[in-house]
Design brief:
262 residues; mainly alpha
Length: 262
């Protein structure tokens, strides 16, 4: 399961870290009972691991981006523990310092390994999602341009068309250019829906879309009363694969919507 909401992603890491912390505390209690050692002493003995886990929770954003630095944290904390423990007679005589150092490093590195594997999985999925949306958007632009060229040829001045007529059914370049400017999913979704609505206009008849402009059309395979669907007029009067352009544009719009809404 992949969470795309940053809050849910953090909640996942927070839940995993709290679970790891509880496991370490249970280990502390177990070691204290089995060895009859003071709970406080055992807690001090596992403090490098406990501090590592708490640090990752508190500086989650920093930890997720500065991964190399975080690998050194258990080593630094364990080094500090070794220095303090060996400099205090009471700790040196009551703790198995060598064993605790090994356990702290092992548990902390295991925790960080799982921590960063989760980050890698989630962030790589987001990169794939962005890449796929970018690919789909580029395809929408290509198909839209191709359709616009066909519209320009079929409803050209030679065939009695004009700029005002063509503007009713072409997809303005500024619409798909907005994809490169917008950042939010909501804005991207609005652009896709706008393009889809314009594409669907091609399924209407000429009479429905530009009733006053059909009289001057000439030299075209179409119903003179304007009852032909615009997409059919384009297909019947141009050699390009108009249907492929149209269906491709619709399909890629749907794929972008699916990515944004899922």
């Amino acid at each position: 399961m992949v969470f795309k909401d940053p809050r849910k992603t953090f909640a996942l890491f927070e839940g995993f870290s709290l679970f790891a912390l509880i496991c370490v505390l249970l280990l502390v209690i177990s070691v204290s009972i089995s060895t009859e050692a003071s709970l406080i002493l055992v807690l001090i003995g596992f403090s490098p691991t406990i501090i590592t886990i708490i640090s990752c929770i508190l500086i989650y954003e920093e930890a997720s981006h500065r991964r190399v630095m975080m690998w050194f944290l258990p080593l630094v904390l364990t080094g500090l523990f070794f220095y303090v423990a060996t400099s205090q007679d009471f700790l040196r005589s009551n703790l198995d310092i060598a064993a605790l150092i090994g356990l702290n490093i092992a548990i902390s590195l295991l925790y960080l390994t799982i921590f960063f594997l989760l980050i890698k999985m989630l962030f790589s999925d987001k990169k794939k999602e962005k890449k796929s949306i970018k690919t789909f958007v580029a395809s929408i632009e290509d198909k839209s341009k191709a359709l616009n060229y066909v519209i320009g040829r079929v409803y050209s001045q030679y065939h009695g068309g004009n700029k005002q007529l063509r503007e009713l059914i072409t997809i303005p370049s500024e619409w798909y250019n907005e994809f490169n400017e917008t950042k939010s999913k909501e804005e991207t979704l609005k652009i896709v829906i706008r393009i889809e609505n314009r594409l669907k206009r091609l399924l209407h008849t000429e009479q429905e879309v530009f009733p006053e402009k059909t009289k001057g059309l000439k030299n075209l395979k179409r119903n003179k009363d304007g009852s032909s669907k615009i997409i059919n007029v384009l297909m019947d009067n141009d050699n390009d694969p108009v249907q492929d352009y149209y269906e491709g544009a619709i399909m890629f719009c749907e794929k972008v919507r699916e990515q944004l809404i899922s």
